[in-house]
Design brief:
83% of the residues lie in helices and 0% in strands. The protein has 17 helices and no strands. The chain starts with a helix and ends with a helix. About 3% of the residues have low confidence.
């Protein structure tokens, strides 16, 4: 049996737990859809508008629902059925991907359709992520948490390798409509596996009759805890600076692929695949030896080096060199991102975990803002200079955090 074979390897040990195994398989399919969308949505809006500014805008519009709904999503993840929230999100995602595919095939799709679907999907994503992340902690014992998060990251980065490449091949050989049709299918499969999970409602203060006052207070308490806990605060600061200044270079990948490197949609998929190979390598290391790593140093150093590598990528006009740089950036991306998530969950008690993870995922607002900024900056000074300038600023922020926050360096 395939499971018995996998369990021979330490990295797959969390799959011994049935609830985690179902959650993990569901996440395999949704992650494939998510990473395919990194290529298909950007390529679609670039085909429709031929505008690097709108590449940033189509990501930037997703910031508003994440900003407004994340505090609510975090509190509901700590108070109500996490399975139900994830289930609704998966079904809605499948619907919108299918609808976009239909409009592309019938040649009725317009840019505003892409924007509206982006906003709707950002809304359901906001409720899905804190619940899904907290479900990982619920599904495994505390001593397996780092391993489980590392295994999630490993699977997510296998999807990062295969998803963009698959999307690029489908777009090149069929159309972006074909890519969206496959994405819809993946989300249907994810919903089917999620449905098999045991429904384990969260006992919450919502049942005590405090109503809205208790709900709002729970949001405020989550904010207070996240700021007062030095480990959680440090993790959030690391991901905030990375999301604002460094990671948004991905927004401009269609520009680099088509106009700088001249490799088209298939080349863009290969670039993201190369990044996924590096990320997969890093996530395997985290899953196997994560508890023995100096996580504070690796979080800060990983993001700092990430920024410098983006500068080199921005200046490269050689596709092979760009592929290598993307692979090394993948190493740095997961070393910082997955470790941040591990630290936040490990240092958050169960009753706060949904709210702290909501704040972690709320940093996508910062990422959307960064995408909007880099898109506008690219329109003014060019994609290469925009990516390089913002990444230098991000690396300097990591240097400042290292120098002025000794507690951050001591996080284990």
């Amino acid at each position: 049996m395939w499971l018995d074979w996998l369990l021979k390897f330490k990295v797959f040990e969390p799959l011994r737990h049935p609830q985690y195994r179902l959650l993990w398989i569901s996440h395999v399919f949704s992650a494939m859809g998510t990473w395919m969308d990194q290529v298909s949505r950007g390529w679609l809006i670039y085909e429709l508008t031929n505008s690097s500014l709108q590449l940033g805008l189509v990501r930037g519009v997703q910031a508003l629902p994440i900003l407004l709904l994340s505090p609510i999503a975090g509190s509901t993840a700590d108070r109500y059925s996490r399975k139900s929230q994830v289930m609704v999100a998966l079904v809605v995602d499948a619907f919108f991907y299918g609808l976009l595919a239909l409009m592309i095939f019938t040649q009725t799709v317009e840019p505003w359709h892409v924007y509206v679907s982006a906003v709707c999907m950002a809304s359901v994503w906001t409720f899905q992520q804190p619940s899904r992340a907290a479900m990982v902690s619920d599904a495994v014992p505390p001593e397996s948490l780092t391993n489980a998060i590392g295994l999630n990251a490993m699977m997510f980065n296998v999807a990062r390798i295969t998803g963009p490449a698959l999307a690029g091949l489908i777009i090149a050989g069929w159309s972006s409509g074909g890519a969206y049709a496959v994405q819809a299918l993946f989300y249907v499969l994810a919903a089917i596996w999620n449905l098999k999970l045991r429904d384990d409602p969260i006992e919450s203060s919502s049942a005590d009759g405090h109503g809205d006052e208790g709900f709002v207070q729970s949001i405020v308490e989550g904010w207070k805890f996240s700021w007062q806990n030095v480990e959680v605060r440090t993790g959030l600061l690391v991901v905030i600076w990375a999301s604002l200044f460094i990671i948004p270079f991905n927004t401009l990948l269609p520009v680099f692929a088509r106009d700088v490197l001249g490799v088209g949609a298939r080349g863009q998929g290969l670039l993201l695949t190369a990044m996924g190979v590096g990320a997969l390598t890093s996530s395997v290391l985290i899953a196997t030896v994560g508890d023995r790593m100096p996580r504070g140093i690796l979080m800060i150093g990983g993001v700092g080096v990430y920024g410098l590598l983006v500068v080199l990528f921005a200046m490269s006009t050689w596709f092979e060199l760009s592929m290598v740089l993307m692979a090394v950036m993948g190493l740095c991306h997961v070393a910082s991102h997955a470790l941040v998530q591990t630290v936040i969950q490990a240092y958050s008690p169960r009753e706060f975990r949904g709210r702290t993870m909501a704040l972690f995922h709320q940093t996508h607002v910062i990422l959307m803002a960064g995408g909007l900024i880099i898109g506008a900056l690219a329109s003014a000074i060019g994609a290469q200079w925009a990516a390089a300038l913002m990444s230098v600023i991000g690396s300097l922020c990591m240097l400042a955090l290292y120098l002025f926050s000794p507690a951050a360096r001591r996080i284990r």
